[in-house]
Structures are given as structure tokens and as C-alpha cells.
């Protein structure tokens, strides 16, 4: 995405809890070097998810993360509830992930402000 005024300021540093605006600013920055994890059930992910998110349901999340994501990667996660996001974030931190942020409000907050979403389901 090109910015009309040329220079886009550096995004805010990763916090333990992020608002959807924080993540969007990071994505708009252009070279975000982050991974967005959707830890909800795969069926919910297929209906709609934050653009660019990858589905990593809770069941095998830690094993899959450890085999595919470096421990110093910036991870933004969201589940069905903020409580679920917090629990998963704590589990990821416990196995060594240093930069984990919970997206407050998750998918609902993202959709409420009209940020881009993707769907795996074919358009009608």
C-alpha cells in the first residue's frame, strides 16, 4: 500500500495486548515481519478471518508453532474471546515465544471497524 505523503512512521512496538488499530498500522507499514494466528475452530476461520491470518487451532497449536515459527517472530493472536487469546498467548510465551500480542476484541473488533477480511468459502 502506498502512502500519499511518502514516509510512513515506524509502527508502534509490539505490546502484550494490541488493539486492531495497532495491528493495522503494522500491516500498513509495509514490511511487517509478523504472523497473525487465528486460534479459533477451523470452520470459523473458513467463514471469515483477518486478511493474512493463518489458521492454527488450539489442539496442535504449540507443536505447529514450534515447527514453523521462529521464537523471535512477532505473533499476533486472536481466538473466540479475549480470555482464549490470553490463555494461548501465555502458553506460547511459556514455550519460549518472546513477542506475542493478543488482539483485543479479535475478529469482531476487526470487522467492526471495516478492516479487510478473507474467507475460504467460495463466493456465492
Structural notes for this entry:
It is a single chain. The chain is α/β, with parallel strands linked by helices. The protein has one domain (17-115): Rhodanese-like domain (Oxidized Rhodanese, domain 1). It is 35% helix and 19% strand. The chain is built from five helices and seven strands, in the order βαβαββαβαβαβ. The protein has helices at 20-28, 42-47, 61-68, 82-94, 106-112; strands at residues 17-18, 34-38, 49-50, 54-55, 74-78, 99-103, 117-118. The strands form two sheets. A five-stranded parallel beta sheet has the order 1-6-5-2-4. The two termini are 28 Å apart. 26% of the residues are buried. The model has no long low-confidence stretch (mean pLDDT 88).
How is this structure best summarized?
35% of the residues lie in helices and 19% in strands.
| Major sheet characteristics | 5 strands, parallel
Q: How confident is the prediction overall: mean pLDDT?
A: 88
CATH homologous superfamily identity: Rhodanese-like domain
CATH class category label? Alpha Beta
Number of domains: 1
Strand order across the biggest sheet?
Answer: 1-6-5-2-4
- Enter the CATH topology name: Oxidized Rhodanese, domain 1
* Helical percentage: 25-40%
CATH arch. level architecture: 3-Layer(aba) Sandwich
Order of helices and strands: EHEHEEHEHEHE
Helix count equals 5
Cα-based radius of gyration, to the nearest Å: 14 Å
- Approximate shape: globular
Beta content:
15-25%
Report the span from N to C terminus. 28 Å
Structural class: alpha/beta
Amino acid at each position: 500500500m502506498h502512502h500519499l505523503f511518502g514516509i510512513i512512521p515506524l509502527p508502534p512496538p509490539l505490546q502484550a495486548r494490541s488493539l486492531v488499530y495497532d495491528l493495522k498500522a503494522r500491516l500498513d507499514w509495509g514490511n511487517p515481519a509478523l504472523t497473525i494466528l487465528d486460534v479459533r475452530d477451523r470452520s470459523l476461520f473458513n467463514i471469515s478471518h483477518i486478511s493474512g491470518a493463518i489458521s492454527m487451532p488450539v489442539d496442535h497449536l504449540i507443536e505447529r508453532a514450534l515447527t514453523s515459527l521462529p521464537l523471535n517472530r512477532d505473533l499476533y493472536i486472536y481466538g473466540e474471546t479475549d480470555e482464549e487469546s490470553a490463555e494461548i498467548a501465555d502458553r506460547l510465551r511459556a514455550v519460549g515465544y518472546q513477542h506475542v500480542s493478543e488482539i483485543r476484541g479479535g475478529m469482531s473488533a476487526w470487522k467492526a471497524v471495516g478492516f479487510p477480511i478473507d474467507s475460504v468459502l467460495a463466493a456465492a
